[in-house]
# Entry
Amino acid sequence: MDQVRKRRAGGGGPFLRFGLPMTVFSVVGFYGLVHLTQGRREMINAHSPAQLQPLNKEGELKSEGKKLDLNEELRKLNEKVNINDYENKPVPKLSSDE
# Structure
């Protein structure tokens, strides 16, 4: 009989044990995520479309300086890096004695 009284006095039922903590974590998590994503929304809204550089018909950026040509940039990169000229270097193995 004493165990039943202790259980009822301190237990509080399944809602207080499981439901209330789940509800509190859900509400706090929702407001926490709103706070975290608000900074992202502010950054997106800070960049107005007028600040972005528009593309012309060929897909090049409009700029005051020289034109950006992607094919030319790819050719320059291919001249710097030769993917067929390489050598395999073994990775040193760790000894199990240490």
